[in-house]
Amino acid sequence: MSIDNFNFANKKAIVRVDFNVPLDENGNITDDTRIRGALPTLKKILNDGGSLIIMSHMGKPKGKVNPKFSLAQIKDAVAKALGCDVEFAPDCAKAAEAAKDLKPGEVLLLENLRFYPEEEGKPVGIEKTDAGYEAAKKEMKERQKEFAKTLASYADVYVNDAFGTAHRKHASTAVIADYFDQQDKMLGYLMEKEVKAVDNILSDIKRPFTAIMGGSKVSTKIGIIENLMDKVDNLILCGGMTYTFAKALGGKIGESLCEDDKLDLALEIMKKAKEKGVNLVLGTDCVAGDSFSNDCNTQICSVMDIPEGWEGMDAGPETRKSFAAVIEPAKTILWNGPAGVFEFDTFTAGSRAIADAIVKATENGAFSLVGGGDSVACINKFGLADQVSYVSTGGGALLEAIEGKVLPGVAAVK
Ligand code: AMP
Q1: What's the pTM?
Q2: Second CATH level (architecture) for the domain 3-188
Q3: Residue 164 bears catalytic tag
């Protein structure tokens, strides 16, 4: 079932969105991208003459009520974005009456789902290693089903538009779907777009395909690196992981970030790339700093010869050129993770060079997907988000999808 050809007239739709927006200390929203991202789905339902029950999590309240994470704080912003009044249900599991009273065009926002441990379905107050954990887990799974059933009872239709949590099998993202008929559950527009973007990267590959993996550590990216190795022509590995590779090759890396227990893994990745005919591109020079700060002293040096007391914090000029050389001619591009400590203005040049090359390739017809927390922050910082093909809202969900894993939030409605 596609949201586009479903008529919501006189239907109550319960929609899982990702309104986990950042708030400042006064509870003001500092970035409303996620609210704006859900608007096409929410407006379609209202314009059809349906009523809306909106549900989301915010932060990590760990199964307990905590005003700091109350969605009441964003009620007015949601109302403003939708251009209509929004009712608030202060207890998401006791909203049956409020939901029953909804008329076409009306909106009810439920309180944070994660105020209930049932949402995530993890047993509380017991560790995995404790006796009785398995029994507690089983009991919580039953409670999770009941919780999901309660949420489902509010509505006729279920729509999942929360890509950011699609890799989690939570009550509101997956279990709830069991309580709707196949024709009454579907993905929202944002989810459809995200799934299609991943599909473009995984199945409809125009070559050459260049993937750029950066960020701080190789250990958190290994799953995706291995998966990409079967698909890409060029694989750029940059950011903090550069120095684990340099050290594995016998380089002197000063104080640079390094995962000493991953040196063998780095060599293994290089070997695999060779076997599979993948052009693995690593940094050769870097911008090193004498402290981890924006106003430290800097120097350009080889990644294999960084003086003691200095650490590699960004890609050097020669490296930027070699990255651009495999990005610009690419026809499919995936970028996850910055090439340097881009939060400091002194160390943005590497990430900027990547972003500029991606924009150029996109202008020349490439499909470019930028995703995963920091790369999005990075492309936004450069003001180039609208010059790439797609900026994904999902961090973990995007990476798991590209690793080839089935996302529970997608599987549940399909
Ligand atoms: P990740 O969460 O693994 O994608 O990593 C993102 C973080 O990696 C950002 O906060 C960057 O500042 C950081 N990063 C990138 N390059 C380096 C580097 N050379 N040294 C230390 N941190 C880095």
Answers
A1: 0.86
A2: 3-Layer(aba) Sandwich (3.40)
A3: no
